[in-house]
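Here is one chain, start to finish.
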Amino acid sequence: MAEETNIILANRTDAQGTIEIVPEVLEVILGIAAVQVDGVYQMRGSLASTINAWFGRANHGKGVELTVDGDQLKADVYVYLNYGVAVPKVALAMQEQLREQLLYMTDLTLDTVNVHVVGVVPEKAPKIDPNDLFKDDNETEDDD
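Its structure:
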């Protein structure tokens, strides 16, 4: 989880005030961007985020831990990948996507993006009907 300090987005002399953003908002931005990368199945969640999902409350920041150290931002992203994807290729695409999206939306740069692959999820096989074990795929019900 992010630290409790707000991040100042713009501190210019011609501005009429300061613009601050809570680190949890950055986690949500990074979480949404990470899920959009091809090959990502889902983000790792906690027990609380799983229970919230059961009640219909999506936690888009799950699986992202943001660390603010002075002016440096470090993101740790925990993901499940689809089976059969090239892990280094997906991880590099994720690092690039997260950096670009955060820069585009907030003008902040991520110094480090660590991608942690928590697991690989295989495709689900279609369920087999035990009553039709020997049925040909080409047969239809009208052929009888």
